[in-house]
């Protein structure tokens, strides 16, 4: 029996990433408020938010400083834009702050309102760049099976998940996918992580050669795959991939939408994993999820190309009404100030060994095949048989059931395709709360067994 609010919900809303054929029976979980790492439903029941919302509420809920920053900016100047040379101080200050923080040489920052728009911008800028450089055939974009880059037409084309392609008429032509760097699931028997990484790099090289290096513009990757399964890469992976990209003059775009701003115990995932991207996309934790904001870093060669295009074509024909929204920028500035002042990133590095120890201990559980992560992110895989790694029939929905049991235990974690469960709590979670999270997850696994 659905509550009044839940009934109104199913009568009126379409929910992203929800099975619309079964949703009317299950109904929504209606959340009403949050405090620290806890959220409360409309009946006042608390849940430990083990997913930081959607991998984003790094500073937890009810952070009054962020509320004040938003409120102050709303009162002062709730909206202006960056079109036609108009500007405002939060955007200028935030661009300066981000330029300083970027782990790669950065000339400028371009703001969007979401991760999808940031990645769409990356594709368009790559195409525009290669037109400016007089190599109009160099346009193909390579990403990975199980990579997640968003839902707009270009970013969904880069995404490597069936739900984003089947019957959506995607990916668009010119978007190619290489193998997923998930050692547990895709390595051959006895293959070391290094050998697996080399095989994936060889596969990338073979694809570039088959397509023709003159046609391949960019490779995009998340440092740790998020929605594809919370998958940490095998050792040596990015080093070997980087060598291939360098060989064929293929731009490297890091999708830092989840890993940016501390998730792996470094400001950006690229630093933790030794990546040297040409550009990176960010969103989510840049505002701790309190306001929609994303963006991309622009390196000097790309910036020069954009300027040369304007000299030829006139206006830079890209950007949305809310690119650099002043309230979102003000909240991002305060968020980054708090990250620095409260040593949030260092705090993640300090808490990560405890988090990872509790996570990897789950691999002992009879239905867990793998439990692995980096920093404060982890993924586990539910299996029917640990030795053979055989999975349950997907129709049985075993991992989804485990996530529902977790919710009944007062813990929010996320079910992902392939019977994977993601854990990605707010960065401000305390060691005791980490214990509560894993204790509740064990109860959920026991009930699922
Ligand atoms: N890139 C990554 C790595 C993501 O995890 C996401 C969202 O989860 C996106 C891009 C898309 O971001 P958004 O949902 O803000 O469009």
TrEMBL record:
The keyword Transferase applies. InterPro entries: Aminotrans_3, PyrdxlP-dep_Trfase, PyrdxlP-dep_Trfase_major, PyrdxlP-dep_Trfase_small. GO terms for molecular function: transaminase activity. Coiled coil: none annotated. The keyword Transferase applies. Keywords: Aminotransferase, Pyridoxal phosphate, Transferase. Belongs to the class-III pyridoxal-phosphate-dependent aminotransferase family. This is Aminotransferase. The lineage of its organism: Bacteria, Pseudomonadati, Pseudomonadota, Alphaproteobacteria, Hyphomicrobiales.
């Amino acid at each position: 029996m659905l509550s009044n609010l839940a009934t109104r919900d199913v009568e009126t809303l379409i929910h992203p990433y929800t099975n619309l054929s079964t949703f009317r029976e299950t109904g929504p979980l209606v959340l009403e408020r949050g405090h620290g790492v806890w959220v409360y439903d409309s009946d006042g029941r608390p849940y430990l938010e083990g997913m930081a919302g959607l991998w984003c509420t790094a500073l937890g809920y009810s952070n009054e400083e962020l509320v004040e920053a938003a409120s102050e900016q709303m009162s002062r100047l709730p909206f202006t834009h960056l079109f036609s040379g108009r500007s405002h101080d939060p955007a200028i200050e935030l661009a300066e702050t981000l330029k300083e923080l970027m782990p790669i040489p950065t000339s400028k920052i371009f703001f969007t309102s979401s991760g999808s728009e940031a990645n769409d911008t990356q594709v368009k800028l790559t195409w525009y760049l290669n037109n400016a450089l007089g190599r109009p055939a160099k346009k193909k974009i390579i990403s990975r099976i199980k990579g997640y880059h968003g839902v707009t037409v270009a970013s969904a084309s880069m995404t490597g998940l069936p739900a984003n392609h089947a019957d959506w008429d995607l990916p668009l032509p010119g978007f190619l996918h290489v193998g997923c760097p998930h050692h547990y699931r895709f390595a051959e028997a006895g293959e070391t992580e290094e050998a697996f990484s080399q095989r994936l790099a060889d596969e990338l090289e073979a694809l570039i050669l088959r397509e023709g290096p003159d046609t391949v513009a960019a490779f995009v990757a998340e440092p740790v795959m998020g929605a594809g399964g919370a998958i940490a890469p095998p050792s040596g992976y990015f080093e070997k991939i980087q060598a291939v990209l360098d060989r064929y003059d293929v731009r490297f775009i890091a999708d830092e939408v989840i890993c940016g701003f501390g998730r792996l115990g470094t400001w950006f995932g690229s630093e933790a994993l030794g990546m040297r991207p040409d550009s990176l996309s960010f969103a989510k934790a840049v505002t701790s999820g309190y306001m929609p904001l994303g963006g991309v870093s622009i390196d000097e060669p790309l910036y020069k190309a954009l300027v040369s295009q304007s000299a030829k074509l006139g206006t830079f024909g890209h950007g949305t009404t809310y690119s650099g929204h002043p309230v979102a920028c003000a909240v991002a500035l305060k968020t980054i100030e708090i990250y620095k002042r409260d040593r949030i990133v260092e705090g993640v590095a300090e808490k990560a060994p405890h988090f990872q120890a509790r996570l990897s201990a789950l691999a002992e559980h009879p239905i867990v095949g793998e439990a692995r992560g980096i920093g404060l992110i982890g993924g586990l895989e539910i299996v029917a048989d640990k030795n053979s790694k055989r999975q349950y029939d997907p129709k049985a929905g075993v991992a989804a059931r485990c996530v529902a049991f977790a919710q009944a235990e007062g813990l929010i974690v996320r079910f992902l395709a392939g019977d994977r469960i993601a854990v990605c709590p707010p960065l401000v979670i305390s060691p005791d709360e980490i214990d509560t999270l894993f204790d509740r997850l064990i109860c959920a696994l026991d009930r699922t067994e």
